[in-house]
């Protein structure tokens, strides 16, 4: 459902070509050819971007192109096909088929989520992750609790937590005499975006107010003399702290490759020995994001000479004095990354945050997505859409080509 390298679609946007100068059939032929390429899992080898001609226009050779139905058939597309070709500035529909057919949009959903978040929060919005103290700092000792408070930041990584630990040391803290608490109440805890999918898929993690490394843990294995050497870590560009909140065990079996259960307050995994080979690695989802973030921060703080007890999870409004605050990039840049890399956790975090700003989500992803559905209907001329998440991972979401075009036109050719 995602076409990140589709030059045929990008031509009209990037070259500024007026649609009236190009045959609609040629546009459709290009789109169908591109779709056929992706159906075969191979991106086009070259771009068909036309070369500029004199006079500021583009000369397009005359071609005889058959009907839309024939183009679709020739592209070898199976199942149902729907499309709308429209003038991006006026919204005039130039060609369509099944314009009002409800289809699962998959990651195209993220386009609507982007507009929803920008409209609600503004492009300058920044997520904040804080370290708060419930008591004073005297002689290097925090006489009270230290609380790591998540703000829903989908881009928080281990390097950012290391920066916060360094700032905590600069603030004069060497020891926490009270407790170390982790508060992720800024967003509701959601165990997985789509519960029907297998547990081991890294693109289907938990969502929470504290999200670290996209709520994924890095699993690496190497063949050793007596089996395999296994590591689970929270790596980023500069740091690789080992974690114990996620455990892996090798089991003699063929299938399934992975199993998961929550045991002893940890994510407990097993992996089939037959699937490991000589070595490799992959990212696995984290189901206990608060404790994951807490463990990693404690490890980093220790490397800066700060001692504190093991983390404990708390809920409710965060209170205390802010000692350190980390801010994300502005929302515009986060959303650029979202549309480039199609990260599901980012989509859900910004969608949930936008819904909370509009009056709460009822604690569920579906309730938040319904707020986005209502917003699209009221603001983007959406008539038939229905969202159950903000990433498009759930197949129950549906969107029509007509509603998608209406949303893009309403925002404007030079808008977001």
Question: What does this protein structure show overall?
Answer:
- The chain has 416 residues and is of the alpha/beta class.
- It contains ten helices and 16 strands.
- Strands 15-8-6-3-16 form a five-stranded mixed sheet, covered by helices on one side. It has a three-stranded mixed sheet with strand order 4-5-7, with no helix packed on it.
- Helix 4 runs parallel beside helix 8 (344-357).
- The chain is globular, with a radius of gyration of 25 Å.
- The protein starts with 6 loop residues before the first helix and ends in a 5-residue tail after the last helix.
Spatial ordering of strands, largest sheet: 15-8-6-3-16
Output the helix-strand order: HHHEEHEEEEHEEEEEEEEHEEHHHH
State the secondary-structure class.
alpha/beta
Kindly state the number of beta strands: 16
Largest sheet: 5 strands, mixed
- Counted by DSSP, the helix tally is 10
Approximate helicity band: 25-40%
Extract low-pLDDT stretches: 1-22, 36-48
Q: Residue-averaged pLDDT, rounded?
A: 87
Question: Into which percentage range does the β-strand content fall?
Answer: 15-25%
Rg result = 25 Å
Shape: globular
Instruction: Give the CA-CA distance, first to last residue.
Output: 22 Å
